[in-house]
Amino acid sequence: MLIKNVHVDNQAALTDVQIKDGHFSKIAPNLVPDAGEQVIDGQGKVLLPPFVESHIHLDTQLTAGQPRWNESGTLFEGIRIWGERRQELTKQDVKQRALATIRLLVKHGIQHIRSHVDISDPRLTALQALLELKEEVKDQVDIQLVAFPQDGVLTNLQEKGLMEQAIKEGVDVIGGIPHMEFTTEDGWESVHYLTRLAERYDRLVDMHCDEIDDPASRNLEVLAADAYKRGIGDRVTASHATAMGSYNDAYASKLFGLLKRSGMNIVANPLVNVHLGGRFDTYPKRRGLTRIKDLTAAGINVSFGEDDIQDFMNPLGDGNMLDVIMMGVYVDHLMGYHQLQDSFKFVTYNGARTLHIQDQYGIAVGKPANCILLNAPDFYHALNEHREVLYNIRHGKVIAETRPAKTQLYLGF
Ligand code: 17E
Ligand code: FE2
């Protein structure tokens, strides 16, 4: 396959990209197609590596209203509703909703997904379903599974055993939720316990960490210190980290030093956390997000996730990462022209770093030929005008193609 005239990685220069045997083979202007080679005319549009969804819960998606809607909009009501819905899970139910979600993601240019999966159900139904699904779809999308103890590993007395079982069944990543443990000390202990497990079983770590508007929720420093001391920072992620939006600046400054030294990653979920955050404030009302802009400026890796699509935590969402970016850049004041142009990195290269897949990711000779063609001359226009992913290409084969809708105006001017 030869893709002509594209702005690779949103760069100003135009080039061509050739694919052979599922890998990028040449990247240079004026390449000539071989006899019979498929040619895509990029028409001066942007070619990026596929979008990375670095935080979603495939087991809970598309359950909005089941058994009831989250009318308060709080995380806590959401967790209660899930506690009810979870009792009805079957493998088929999970697989069918997860597949429908993956279709939405692929349509919007995603090929790499990190999915948390709740392991509080002693039958581990959702995990079994997603382990099977991961295998079934692996030619089209890469899925990492995170063992997510929604009810806490110390708070829910069964959960330690379930965590070890989930690891043995093959999860890629160890999850956690220290801010939901009964006490501050239990939260810290859970972090130590889980990072120790990660070392013992050689797994990545991605905890829901301090997803609460409580400036006293400081599990992130414990996780960062563990990551630093164990030398596993690049394999460790804190998701949400929204308490950081409530920390004072002096403390944040100290924390940033530790985060930077640890080399760990942060995932922000701008849509869901703007929606769930600030729910206990009247006015002034906090935004409930982590410090995307400051973390980025400090050289700490931040990627974005959708978290939820049409469930008890988010009634909206259709798999489009542009919506996630849009919310993130608005809420954390990343609205400078260059910040907007660069904002694709939150759902591409930064996401790949979070997932620890950089070796196999990116548009470069020798790497797997995974890429997306956006219907825009640069990322600013793609974001602003919600442009389509025209082609989602996996190992040199088109796995999704979108034809833009055409509008005809009848205005007389
Ligand atoms: N569970 C949780 O604790 N936080 C979330 N944002 C979601 C599930 C989606
Ligand atoms: Fe989450």
Q: Which key phrases capture this entry?
A:
binds 5-methylcytosine, 13 helices, 21% strand, 2 domains, alpha/beta, seven-stranded mixed β-sheet, binds fe (ii) ion, Urease, subunit C, domain 1, single chain, 413 residues
Question: What would your notes on this structure say?
Answer:
This protein is of the alpha/beta class and about 425 residues long. It folds into 2 domains: about 1-50 and about 360-400, Urease, subunit C, domain 1; about 50-360, TIM Barrel (Alpha-Beta Barrel), CATH 3.20.20. About 35% of the residues lie in helices and about 20% in strands. The protein contains 13 helices and 15 strands. The protein has helices at about 75-85, 90-105, 125-135, 160-170, 185-200, 220-230, 250-260, 270-275, 290-295, 320-330, 335-340, 350-355, 380-385; strands at about 1-10, 15-20, 25-30, 40-50, 50-55, 110-120, 140-150, 175, 205-210, 235-240, 265-270, 300-305, 370-375, 390-395, 395-400. The protein has an 8-stranded parallel sheet with strand order 5-6-7-8-9-10-11-12, with helices on both faces. Strands 3-2-1-4-13-14-15 form a 7-stranded mixed sheet, with no helix packed on it. α5 (about 185-200) runs parallel beside α6 (about 220-230). The longest helix has 18 residues, at about 185-200. The chain starts with a strand and ends in a 12-residue tail after the last strand. About 50% of the residues are buried. The model has no long low-confidence stretch (mean pLDDT about 95). It binds 5-methylcytosine and fe (ii) ion. Fe (ii) ion binds near residues 55, 57, 116, 208 and 239. The site of fe (ii) ion has 6 residues, from loops.
